[in-house]
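Re: Re: token formats

Sure, here are both.
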Amino acid sequence: MDFPQRVNGWALYAHPCFQETYDALVAEVETLKGKDPENYQRKAATKLLAVVHKVIEEHITVNPSSPAFRHGKSLGSGKNKDWSRVKFGAGRYRLFFRYSEKEKVIILGWMNG
């Protein structure tokens, strides 16, 4: 997935923090594919990349204002409320993003790796 791009009517951008993690994951999957083209899809990194794409395309860009993406007070009370969070991978991974309903823009900020 290249950034910026338009998904489900939203302009999707990647902050350098997210882009770095995402690019490393893509590179890892490409290396796995080169070493074992028949079985790389069974590897954890490949599955994680597929889930990241699914989360972005089928969840975040469908309804970024979903209450499921609110993080409560986990980032401190009152501050960082502009950031939303999606959990995936059995709760092991989190992807933080911001969005503007008015501008139809989503910025993918950070993903733990």
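Second one below.
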Amino acid sequence: MIIITNTVEMTRVLCRVTDATLRRILTERAEQLAEYDGYDLGELAHFLIVEPSDSLDTIEAALGFSPLTNLVEVVVDHGGWFEAVFILGDDGFGWVLLIPDQPDIDPAFLHLCSETPESR
């Protein structure tokens, strides 16, 4: 897994990302969050990029919650990548999970992405 918790980390990850779709998603979100003057990206959202070796247990430990039991706000299919957003508080802070649509990803994540928030 790759975790991004601030603007510096986002910049580092963007320098290393080779997947065009993932780069586009991260760039768009970084630009959107940069519009909130006076806040670092990490004060607004943290990002977790799921990798094939990641299990549900390791992701839950990193997040501090289960993405399968917390209500997902929105899931966006970007064609090859899913973006699942979890808002954790009234201040709007949230986690953004980026999950590749690949057969070697834990099926629990792909199931999460196939459901709509209304069906959970």
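The mean pLDDT is 91. The chain is about 40% helix and 20% strand.
- S.
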